Each structure stands twice: as C-alpha cells, then as structure tokens.
Amino acid sequence: MPEADVKELKSFYTEIPQKTEGFFLKGCGSLDWGMKNRMARIFNPLSGRTVMLAFDHGYFQGPTTGLERIDITILPLIPYADTLMLTRGILRSIIPASANKAIVLRASGGPSILKEMSEEEIAVDIDDCIRLNVCAMAVQVFIGGEFEKQSVMNMTKLVDLGTRYGIPTLAVTAVGKDMARDARYFRLATRMCAELGAHYIKSYYVEEGFETVTACCPVPIVVAGGKKIPELDALKMAYNAVQQGASGVDMGRNIFQSDSPTAMIQAVRAVVHDNETPDKAYDLYNTLKNRNEKSR
Ligand code: 5RP
C-alpha cells in the first residue's frame, strides 16, 4: 500500500531553495547529464584535472617500446591513472573490466606509420563504444595535413554520433613531421576542433605562448607527453602546462618508457592534481623509484 500522504509528517524544507550546481569543467555547463557524468569520470571533480595514461600507440605503430607486453608493463600503472586511453583490441584482450577506470577509446585509424598518416577514418562503431561503456571517443585531427578535411569530418561525425548517446569526443591534434609546433598552430588546431564540437582537446605543450592556446580554446585541453625526455623535464612540462591552463595530461611514453613507470605516474599525479613543483615531484619520483628497486 502506498504511503499515506500525511503532510505533517513530511519535510519539504520550504525555506531552503534547491541547490543548482554549476559544472566544474570549462565550457561544459550546457552538456547533457550523461556527457557531464562521463566527463566527471575522466576529470577529477576535486582538482578539475586528469592524468590520462595513453597507450594506444600500437594502433598505427605496432608494439611500441614499453608496450610490447601491456599485461606486464601497463597493468601495474592502472591504479594511478584517472583515465586509460587505448584501443578496443587491448581493452578487450588485456584490461580487466574490474579495473573500473574511465576509458577513452581510440576511435580513428587506418594508415600505419609506413603510409600517409592523415588518411584515417572512423574505426569503431558507436554501438561498440556503448557496449564497452566508454567515457569518450578519441579521434585524430590533422590540421594542415594532406587529409585535413577528411580527419575533421571524422571528428564531426563522431561528435554527432556521441551526442545521440551522451558520449563525449576527444579531438587529438596531430602534428605532421614537417609542421611547425608553435602556439599559433595550436591556437588554430584546438580552436577549430572546439568550434566544430569536440568536447575536449589534446594538444602539445609549447614553451612560448601556451597560455594563449588554453585561453582561446573554450573547452578543456590536455597535453600529450610526446617523445621520451628526462623525467625532470617531463615533470616541468606537465607543471607548466597545468599552470598555464591545461586541464591535465594525456601522457604515454614519458610514463611507460621511464626507468620507473610507477614512480613516474605518481610524480605526474602530484604535479597535476596537487600543484606540486617539478623539483618536489622529481624528489618523489626518486624516492619511489629507490623504494621499488629495494623491494625487488
Ligand atoms: C597517439 C596518441 C597518444 O595517445 C598521445 O600522443 C599521448 O602519448 P605520448 O605522451 O606518448 O605522446 O594520440 O597517436
């Protein structure tokens, strides 16, 4: 029998207006609930930032150094990542579903490193993204590349498909070998992706003017790590990026090719989530690395 509607026993708190909370991520306030929920799994609502562990490199270059055996090298890092960026092949074959991490699925592909890289197409069906419960789909966008328009259209198609089901799209700005990596280029590339509907954007960090890239992009930017550099330099890059407006990192090689990947990812976390300085984070890296070596 339904509860009798006896008003005196109920609390309506008529004197307290209902809270209407804003959303913590730049430019995401008008997204639908499902999109916001997925973005809040990728980005930590407390810091507003994310440490995405990227290990999707095999989709165009096969067994990349450090990713030859993902079961051995990457699984131990998962507890320290907020988000995993990977292909569906690796997700299904190696990553335990119980890992319960936000998944950003590589959704474009086609050419290998032996061919013209910008000729990618959408390489996953939206049904499979739903089946895999992904939090976002990642698509490479080659502004200035030979197949620029095709890659931009891949992105807009994914944005449309994802919007139907509440799944955000991450636009990954890809830089060709001969293209300038400067603030002017990344302002153009990131802004184009945002204007055309991407929910967040991966860029590279540039020493000069990076704050102008984040300032004129209306949605969150995360920075890729790029080629392996010394640990302290990678921590400085991550620090400068977040202090200049990035909402976190999408870092691969500078973590999984580090001398101590578990120490490195924890040091990166300290910089991204706790605003730790690069020198202090590097001390943490060395402490954890030495501890790991002793316990072997
Ligand atoms: C590959 C990618 C990578 O996921 C991205 O570049 C991050 O990896 P790294 O830090 O090694 O550059 O998009 O195309």
Show the helix and strand layout.
Layout: H1 33-42, E1 50-54, H2 58-61, H3 70-73, E2 83-86, H4 88-94, E3 102-106, E4 108-109, E5 121-122, H5 126-131, E6 136-141, H6 148-165, E7 169-173, H7 183-195, E8 200-203, H8 210-215, E9 221-224, H9 231-243, E10 248-251, H10 253-256, H11 261-274, H12 278-294
Helix pairs in contact: 9-11, 9-12, 11-12
Bound molecules: ribulose-5-phosphate.
Describe the structure.
- The protein is α/β, with parallel strands linked by helices and 296 residues long.
- It is 39% helix and 14% strand.
- An eight-stranded parallel barrel has the order 1-2-3-6-7-8-9-10, surrounded by six helices. Strands 4-5 form a two-stranded antiparallel ribbon.
- Helix 7 links the parallel strand 7 (169-173) and strand 8.
- Helix 9 (231-243) crosses helix 12 (278-294) and helix 11 runs antiparallel to helix 12.
- It starts with 32 loop residues before the first helix and ends with a helix.
- The relative contact order is 0.13.
- The model has no long low-confidence stretch (mean pLDDT 95).
- Bound molecules: ribulose-5-phosphate (5RP).
- The site of ribulose-5-phosphate has 13 residues, from strand 10 and helix 10.
